[in-house]
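Hi team,

Below is the intake form for Glucan endo-1,3-beta-glucosidase from Talaromyces proteolyticus. Please confirm the fields before the structure is written into the shared record.

FORM ID: S-0412
PROTEIN: Glucan endo-1,3-beta-glucosidase
ORGANISM: Talaromyces proteolyticus
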Amino acid sequence: MRSFTNWTLALAAMMLGQTLAGPIRVHPGGPEDIVVTKYDTLNGTFVGGSKAVQDSTMATSSAAQLPISIVNNMAGSSAGQLNAYVIGQDSNKNVVLLASDGSWYYPPGTTSGVPVAITADLAQPLGAAGSTTTITLPDYVSAGRVYIADGTLQWFVVTNGAGGAALVEPSPVNPSDPNAGVNWGFIELTNTEAGGIYANLSYVDFVGLILGASLLTTDGSVQTAEGLSSDAVAQICAGLVAQTASDGYPWSSLCMTDSSGNYLRALAPYDYIQDNHADAWSNYFTDYINSVWSTYSSSPLTIAAAAGSYTCTTGGSDTLTCGGDNRGYAKPTAADIFGCNSGPFAIQAGDNSEHYAIVPILCAAFNRATLLLDGGNVQPGLPATDYYTVSPTNYYSKLVHHYEVDGKGYAFSYDDVNSSGENESGALIAANPQSLTITVGGPSSS
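The structure came back. Fields below:
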């Protein structure tokens, strides 16, 4: 790694147009400090608190009642009172949270645009270190999350525009959010009668409280995503700080600390860019993108999707064109690459199946910096050992995967794009779930 004096590093940062900053210290505020965005809200169709409506949505079949066992592997000296929270939508698309008595709680509708605190008892207290606590979901749930917090999380609602409830979730990005000082994380969860279960570790937005997951099905098979090592947040942030010292980009500012300087979480670069840092990494990929466009000016890039293979070239233009695709791909920005949902990677109404197939593969290749490697002319084709081996690349994703015990867990939106037989995503999927186990604080000892 290159060694810089402070003056050299500052000069390099000025030339790159970056502002060198360090980790961000949180300062939790009140409801007035909440920034409501589409990324931190869950909307439902239900308006008001009718007990009849609530009762009519409760499960009548035991198949809908999913047991979730939560194993506390956090050392007693490093943890306070751990609490679990479950949110989602019930079978009728109503917003629900799991109440402390094990039933669904339906937040009342509101016309307020200012977040209103939910005062119901929603915490599911976990046992001491080494113990396992089991909760049972009363019904099927979609668009759900199981939150685990070292402390107490606050929940709020705002209007959904029609007098209904839009649930405001904790924000990992806002240092003034009321929950900013709490160490928390979540497992994404959908469990429906028609589709079965989909659960996954997601680090697409941030890394926080260390979690892992295991799924047992009714035929006895087990799927696991062990998650990160117990000290991963501090290690990831140390790596991000070192990367800033190396290239001058604001990787270190992805980390948030509490008032004592202890690391709480690390943000994904796309979330940092979206949070009023539009110019961060603005020219980070420029030379790499130009080299990609030049390389595939006449030599073809093959996108090997499940539905078929597509040949792509730039032809010396500013647009990458792929056979069968209804539209081409302009040169992406850093935000386009980190987020995979804007610019050339945005999915628009009317896009054909070829475009839907190509976008994830192409964006994954940019994040992993595999397009100019030997064999990179076929995507996806290279093994995970070739991901993130050259710069520029998504160092956040690289560090997250480095500290994952088994390499599984989404670190950007299309982390499920892999060559045959590999799985970087950490998704647990089955039509016949029997139970879900979540570990807190690192994997259980074998």
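SUMMARY LINE: The chain has a mean pLDDT of 89.

Thanks, M.
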